[in-house]
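Input structure tokens:
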């Protein structure tokens, strides 16, 4: 009797289960690979979606074999909020936009100057949007960048995501920044961060830009325009404040402790009159920051230890000699110091603490921070760096002399 009652209860509970009540079939969705954000003069947002065309990918088309169907389609929606734009997209699309697989979000320059707090709020509050999407700034309109094709890849949004991943792991000039990272920076003491900038480089004219939006560009072995990372955009309080070039961006990566691997070109000390450089690949970089107080101001002690491999040299000296290796290590240390100073000088010009020194000061001197934080922008410009670089060539290679050496 008891067993029968149990069976009945189990059957009743099974009828109460709803199953996949909120399921949506794939043929009812348009999956977004990338998103673009721009702003209008009247304060509204223009959100652009790069949606995937499944038939162009599964059939092996999307530009290959003479196909006339692209792998993605781009359209824009104007609205007062990001969620409203997402909802209004149903007026332009036969299917609902699915943004959970969004890989990259492009942000136009004007939108970045306006501020990205609304964007971050949307990604953190919406249950479908994922805060791990990669952020990229554009100097023009984000919608224009979304329309460009990145040969030989079919999906430009996915290709840009992979490009930033590779650059962050190999060179570390423009480290990857996600929406989550940006949100953390907005709630830190420095309230600043740097984000990579993507743009078109090459022969810019109307014809080439139009071609970059068509499948004709995939039929060429070389394109006059290509999409690449060009600068580092620095933000303060969620708004764009300025740009840094490649060397300055690398210097900021050192100070931000974001160096994974990178490559350093340095001159030969015994050949000052020749354009002779060697290459050093950094396999590991240990950066330690120690804030110090000098009088009423602060100084940051920066200790950098880099270990790596000598992968190319045109120096005439015998690198099997210990003193030659020490000279090379000295040149590498000078180059790292110079790059760090380049980035630091530019940040102080902009008055943007994109390296997070405010957090270091707060942790080291919590009592002083109560008064310093009110005028941190001014105090940041007065800070000095004490840079100490220790470079070690662990693997100089089997070739002891440059191939052109006569000694």
């Amino acid at each position: 009797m008891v067993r029968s009652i149990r069976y009945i209860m189990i059957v009743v509970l099974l009828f109460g289960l709803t199953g996949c009540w909120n399921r949506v079939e794939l043929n009812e969705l348009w999956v977004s690979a990338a998103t673009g954000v721009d702003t209008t003069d009247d304060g509204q947002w223009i959100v652009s979606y790069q949606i995937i065309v499944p038939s162009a990918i599964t059939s092996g088309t999307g530009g290959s074999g003479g196909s006339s169907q692209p792998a993605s389609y781009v359209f824009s929606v104007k609205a007062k909020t990001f969620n409203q734009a997402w909802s209004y997209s149903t007026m332009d699309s036969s299917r609902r936009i699915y943004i959970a697989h969004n890989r990259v979000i492009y942000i136009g320059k004007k939108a970045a100057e306006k501020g990205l707090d609304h964007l971050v709020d949307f990604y953190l509050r919406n249950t479908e949007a994922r805060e791990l999407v990669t952020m990229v700034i554009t100097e023009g309109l984000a919608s224009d960048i979304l329309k460009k094709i990145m040969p030989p890849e079919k999906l430009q949004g996915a290709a840009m995501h992979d490009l930033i991943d590779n650059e962050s792991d190999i060179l570390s000039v423009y480290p990857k920044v996600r929406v989550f990272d940006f949100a953390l920076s907005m709630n830190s003491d420095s309230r600043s961060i740097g984000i990579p900038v993507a743009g078109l480089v090459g022969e810019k004219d109307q014809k080439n830009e139009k071609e970059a939006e068509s499948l004709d560009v995939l039929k060429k072995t070389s394109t006059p325009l290509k999409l690449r990372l060009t600068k580092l955009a620095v933000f303060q309080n969620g708004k764009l404040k300025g740009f840094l070039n490649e060397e300055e961006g690398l210097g900021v990566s050192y100070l931000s402790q974001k160096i994974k691997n990178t490559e350093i070109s340095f001159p030969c000390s015994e050949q000052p009159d020749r354009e002779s450089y060697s290459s050093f690949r950094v396999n590991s970089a240990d950066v330690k920051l120690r804030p110090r107080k000098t009088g009423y101001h602060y100084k940051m002690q920066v200790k950098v230890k880099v270990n790596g491999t000598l992968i190319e040299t045109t120096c005439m000296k015998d690198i099997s000699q210990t003193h030659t290796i020490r000279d090379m290590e000295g040149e590498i240390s000078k180059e790292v110091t110079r790059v760090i100073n380049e980035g630091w000088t530019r940040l102080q010009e902009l008055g943007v603490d994109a390296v997070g020194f405010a957090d270091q000061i707060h942790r080291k001197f919590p009592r002083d921070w109560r008064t310093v934080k009110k005028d941190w922008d001014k105090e940041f410009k007065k800070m000095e760096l004490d840079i100490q670089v220790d470079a070690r060539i662990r693997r100089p290679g089997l070739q002891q002399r440059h191939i052109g050496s006569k000694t």
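Confidence is low (pLDDT under 50) at residues 61-66. The first helix runs from residue 2 to 16.
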